[in-house]
Design goal:
The structure holds two protein chains of two kinds. Chain A is of the alpha+beta class. Chain A has helices spanning about 1-15, 20-45, 60-65, 85-100, 130-140, 180-195, 230-240, 260-310, 320-350, 355-385, 390-420; strands at about 45, 50, 65-75, 105-110, 115-120, 145, 155, 160-165, 175-180, 200-205, 205-210, 220-225, 250-260. By secondary structure, chain B is an alpha+beta fold. Chain B has two domains: about 10-35 and about 125-305, Multidrug efflux transporter AcrB transmembrane domain (Multidrug efflux transporter AcrB transmembrane fold), CATH 1.20.1640.10; about 40-125, Ferrodoxin-fold anticodon-binding domain (Alpha-Beta Plaits). Chain B is elongated. The chains are: A alpha+beta, B alpha+beta.
């Protein structure tokens, strides 16, 4: 980091020191970059295929905006569920969430533990929404049915032994192959004879998941669904069909429901508190450290903007512990700037020229900022490795905060102070909090 | 200007011991309360209107579920709300179907009270225990790696002693935060892990800034200067930095606490209050504990050598 910082400084200074004018420009370039990033962080950016999401599209954990988190496990199953079973169970949940119009969701399958974890927001306009009921219903046994155009049930889920997505040997297109039970193949043979040229619709609960046309009578125990666009679509359909013969229902023994009114209150209060704290810290820095304090405020803004982007671009959910991580890294950011400002002041007082004081101030402050940041990075990485849920989000914001602290508090601050000190009216030692004249 | 920290070290040690003992006293009196995130169990919170008797409501739920239940009523001044808290903390976690039974029972028994679910949390005991174990494991491994890092980076001021004293200061601050949770009767949950980690971050950073100054002064002042003078000078030189940084951090945390208190947001209040104690402790432990202890270690080493 340091060498990159120095490299940039040298590169810019090397090219520009020929003319002081250009050196003065550096401050405005950095400021412009900060403003551009701030605007992207606030409003997002969309040009062509590039779409960067801003804070207005930030995802929040359920502790902030309200929502549901539930961990499902098989009910009364005395063995670990197989991967196929878990995927079928996941397909049930996905289909039902689609039916409930819950699109903004996050579903993860824990294969080693045999669990499915879901998270989704509880929006404040859904006053009729009953989250407890939704959690119960999502895990219920799926009722899979094959129906003729009149709605009569031809086959049930238990008639299908299993299904799988395959690539057809004949024409290389994706297909879903169903293996029928003996009883199932008898029923299916009869139905396909009657329904040639017509459609058989497959339903999960009351949601239609596929509607293939019968091309000829199927007498054996395998049926093939063709004309599927992609292999992933075939996989998804096959998972859904497998859910019909799933030997267990799911229950949620671990869940957390937070109402949107409770959640959103916390968010607006935290944003307000953050703004007030930021303004007060900036005022303090400005009054105490003057010019370096002014630069510190811009650097802090850059750091926070970087953290916001690190959350909003990959759509990482911000939770309350995540906000704690932001607070800690702002503290670290203030500290880096305080250390530098103090050192510059000391160096001026010890008799160095302004330029010399700025250079050696940064140089001497660097080792302490570096070691402090590295130890905090150690904590953050350990959290990302061992943490779960809440601590994970703390580790993530903290790690980005410290990385931004190197870029903003060390490199950007240095570029800005060096550039500003080129202006004659900004060369007074008083502006750096020093007692003596340069 | 040079403050004589080393000379007054026993006053500082005494202060820390008093804090330590009062924390232990709090522990004996209040006991450690683990929140159900770590302990396992279920908690459901409902807003309602009118009057509801908590004990009676608890009996209704207990009869419907067949599991021991306790109810509590909480008034929120800021939102002018009253809440019924249904606690099934002493049992296994309940399923979402059982949760619905609780909601339905309350709605049926108190048709005019307009019960609405505000929050529910249910955790299986073994899952909670694992969360807690992982959190503690992350903290312990971080400590070990920090010790190693400090030992390597600060080897010219006796890396092992510096690292050990930094860890003692960390334990000091982690204890102060824990004591704050216990004394204010805040159950230990996610916020506890987050608060401890934040304070560890602040505290190690504080300690390293001072060590960095000691390391620098060691080369500037030469080998002949006594550890006492070296440490006192280094701490004094970085005094205004220590004060200013901690003021800035303390202001921020206090504002967060004040806002959370005004709007009565429990989760944030429970996090910010122990943090206020932690930041103060982080600054204090570096200057008054880690520095003097390191000096004592170095003095002993010198005596042995001589």
């Amino acid at each position: 980091m340091r060498s990159i910082g120095l490299y940039f400084s040298f590169m810019i200074i090397g090219v520009m020191s020929l003319k002081r004018f250009k050196s003065k420009l550096v401050f405005f370039i950095v400021l412009l970059i900060v403003i551009i990033l701030l605007l992207i962080a606030l409003f997002g950016l969309q040009t062509g295929s590039l779409h960067l999401k801003g804070a207005n599209q930030m995802r929040f954990g359920i502790d902030i905006r309200g929502g549901v988190e539930a961990t499902y496990e098989p009910k009364d199953l005395d063995r670990a569920p197989t991967v196929t079973e878990l995927e079928a169970a996941r397909a049930i949940i996905e289909t039902r969430m689609d039916a409930l119009n819950i699109t903004d969701r996050d579903i993860t399958t824990d294969k080693t533990e045999g669990k499915i974890i879901i998270r989704f927001p509880w929006k404040s306009d859904e006053s009729y929404f009953d989250p407890q009921q939704a959690v119960s219903e999502l895990g219920e046994t799926a009722r899979l049915t094959f129906r003729d155009p009149d709605g009569n049930i031809i086959l049930e889920g238990t008639d299908v032994k299993d299904s799988s997505a395959q690539i057809s040997r004949e024409d290389g297109t994706p297909v879903v192959v169903l293996n029928l039970s003996r009883e199932g193949s008898v029923k299916f043979s009869e139905a396909t004879k009657r329904l040639i040229g017509k459609e058989i619709s497959i339903f999960m609960d009351e949601t239609m998941i596929s509607s293939p046309t019968v091309e000829n009578q199927i007498t054996g125990d395998t049926a093939v669904i063709t004309r599927i666009k992609s292999l992933s679509e075939a996989k998804s359909l096959s998972d859904k069909i497998n859910s019909g013969s799933l030997p267990f229902s799911l229950i949620a023994k671990n869940s957390n429901i937070i109402s949107p009114t409770l959640g959103s209150g916390a968010l607006s209060v935290m944003i307000l508190a953050g703004e007030v704290a930021f303004v007060l810290v900036c005022l303090f820095m400005l009054l105490y450290y003057r010019l370096p304090g002014f630069v510190a405020c811009i650097a802090l803004a850059l750091q926070v903007v970087g953290q916001l982007l690190a959350l909003s671009i990959p759509q990482y959910s911000l939770t309350l512990p995540g906000i704690a991580g932001v607070i800690l890294s702002i503290g670290m950011g203030v500290d880096a700037n305080v250390i530098v400002s103090e050192r510059i002041k000391e160096e001026i007082n010890s008799g160095k020229t302004l330029q010399g004081a700025i250079n050696s101030g940064f140089h001497r402050a660097f080792s302490s900022v570096f070691d402090g940041n590295i130890t905090v990075i150690i904590v953050a990485v350990m959290l990302l490795i061992f943490g779960s849920g809440a601590t994970l989000s703390f580790g993530y914001t903290l790690l980005w905060g410290v990385i931004m602290n190197f870029l903003a508090g060390v490199t950007a601050s240095r570029l800005m102070i060096q550039s500003l000190s080129e202006f004659p009216f900004l060369r007074k030692p008083k502006l750096y909090g020093a007692r003596r004249k340069v | 200007m040079r403050f004589r920290f080393y000379k007054h070290r026993f006053i500082f040690f005494a202060i820390s011991i008093v804090i330590l003992l009062s924390g232990i006293a709090g522990l004996i009196i209040n006991g450690i309360m683990l929140d159900i995130q770590f302990k396992g169990g279920s908690i459901l919170k409902y807003t309602y209107v009118g009057t509801v008797d908590a004990e009676e409501a608890g009996n209704f739920v207990e009869a419907a579920l067949g599991k021991p239940t306790s109810c509590q009523i909480q008034h929120n001044m800021a939102k002018e709300e009253q809440m019924l808290i249904v606690n099934l903390a002493n049992t296994e976690a309940i399923t979402s179907q059982e949760q619905q039974t609780v909601t339905d029972t309350l709605a049926a028994k108190y048709p005019n009270s307009d019960f609405e679910l505000s929050e529910s949390l249910t955790v299986e005991p073994f899952i909670g225990a694992r969360f807690f174990k992982n959190g503690i494991l992350a903290i312990v491994i971080s400590f070990a790696l920090i010790l190693l890092y400090v030992a390597v980076r600060f080897r010219n001021i006796g890396g092992l002693s510096a690292g050990t004293m930094a860890i003692i200061a960390l334990f000091h601050d982690a204890f102060v935060v824990t004591a704050a949770f216990i004394v204010f009767k805040i159950p230990l949950n996610d916020s506890f892990i987050a608060a401890i980690l934040t304070i560890i971050g602040f505290s190690i950073n504080d300690t390293i800034v001072i060590y960095d100054r000691i390391r620098e002064n060691r080369s500037l002042m030469g080998r002949n200067v006594s550890p006492e003078e070296l440490v006192d000078t280094s701490i004094s030189q970085s005094m205004s930095r220590s004060i200013n940084t901690n003021i800035a951090v303390f202001i921020s945390i206090t504002i967060v606490y004040v806002f959370a208190a005004i709007y009565d947001i429990k989760s944030i209040k429970d996090f910010a209050l122990p943090m206020m104690f932690g930041t103060a402790s982080g600054c204090y432990s570096t200057i008054c504990i880690a520095g003097p202890l390191w000096t004592m270690w170095q003095n002993r080493k010198r005596k042995k050598a001589a």
